[in-house]
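User: Here's a chain of 580 residues. Predict its fold as tokens.
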Amino acid sequence: MKKRAQTPDAYTFTTLFRGLSLNAQYPLTVSRALSIYHSMFTDTSPVKPNTIHTNAVLKVCALAGDIDGLLGVAARLPTRGRGAPDNLTFTTILNGIRSVAWEDTKDQGESPARNERRSRAIMQGRRLWEEIRDRWAKGDLYVDEELVCAMGRLLLISSEGQDCDDVLSLLEQTMGLTRQIPRLGDPVHKGSLRELEAITSAEEAISEKVELQTLLPPAATSTRNEADLSDPTTSAFAPLPKGPPTSQPPIRPGRNTLSLVIDACIRLRLIRAAQSYWGMLTSETGTYKILPDAENYHMYLRLLRVQHASKLAVELVEEMRRGDLGKGVGLKTKTFRIAMSCVKRDKNNRHALQYAGRLIRMMTDTLECPDSQALSMYLDLAVSEKPRDWRTIMGAIRGTELGLRNLRSLLAYDPVGSRQQSEEDVLGLVRRMVGAFDVVLDLANEDMSREEKARCREQRHTLASYITRNASRMEYNEREAAKQYESSQIGGDAEEEVGSRERKYDDDPEDVELDLAARREMEEWPQGRGWRTRGRQPSQSSDWKRSLRHEKRGERRERVKKARARRQDTGLRSEREEGC
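Assistant: Prediction complete.
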């Protein structure tokens, strides 16, 4: 642009920042973005930064995981006027804090360091939300559903019950969704929890008798007033005081809010409250009339899994298959996996195996590639049923055979099959099939005919040989991948590759030098007809290399003999001198 005398405008800088955000994984991306952004504040800059530029730079810092740069840019923003932060600015900051805290602690397990790191991130978000609330109350900031849900998702990374409970208070503060359970610090909270636990246990005891109509229960009316709150003045998520309405319209909840509130209730194990929220937000006669999407139904399936409501889960999947729940609500692999895990948890239900069979038939008819984990759970459920019946287990095996055959064909012939299904999961399914055949052969002593037993043994041996072949191949691939990784860590040089591999000659450095010399000589020799037949290199055990190796080893033996003779001569001389 300099050569052509073109002056950059605001669109130019925005395009630069967006391009850097697409390459945020490189180490110099953040420093370049910040240097460009800070240069826009100089007097000689033709363009002064606005809110769009700020949001683009914040996105670069958030994707790169640079919290210091993120907060540094946010600290110098003006409160009002040109360049003041908007709702997208605060949304980007909250999402950046959450993603960095999650990435830093996802592999640490339940440890004090992980809890401390996430608590520190949540405290940063709480301080930021106080500023957002004050600006929103004054009418200086527009707050939308995306910003509210960003704060709620940040609270949900915590393992503390208070943070998850504050999600419900956040929705009450911003969207006016009446809490379906008292606050965690209320004196009546314990009594309400006991009542909800009693209702939940009673529902689990009669889960097989519950009808699908409870998917949309009537919204519970709250009898509490704002005076029942524990301390509304100290909580950042207390309801705002009654006052003149602001210029912006009220925040209307959507599908993101529905998923957020159900997730919070599942973490708190508030089953009845979650159903009340679901009914309040999705009822056709209610105020909001949200039409759930596939992810909302997946979240509700998780809720049913906590409740051990296997019948409701199967009927919900059938509704999704028929398309009665709206457009865009299709069946996916995750749908059947969550529903099957729900049925497996409800294994004490005498109809659990029947519900699992219905799910397997729907999955086989609907999905192009069945899920190996769902099939494995189906076999586990059939084998663990008490009392055991070999006919029931055999029926589960027959129901799984078609899906297993499709999975084996997918891994064998489809180039992208390994990306759709894990080979370890498929091998686990085959192992469960072998175990199920063993159980059938043990239980069916006299009831099964000889032909049927022979057929079962033949299928069992076929599956066992498949396990042996593929397990050996996977181990070989893992070893080769480890060798390639070690060589890439050391370097791509031929000498370093040889040094990183296992030595065939007792870790002798001279043998390594011999191998390198042989490889160099092999590259220098002419490539005749017998050298690279069908694209192969000469074998490592060729005559010329063997003779070179023997010659080198003979020279080494001579040197060793001479060294030993010298040591013996030195010892004899020292003994003679001492004798003298």
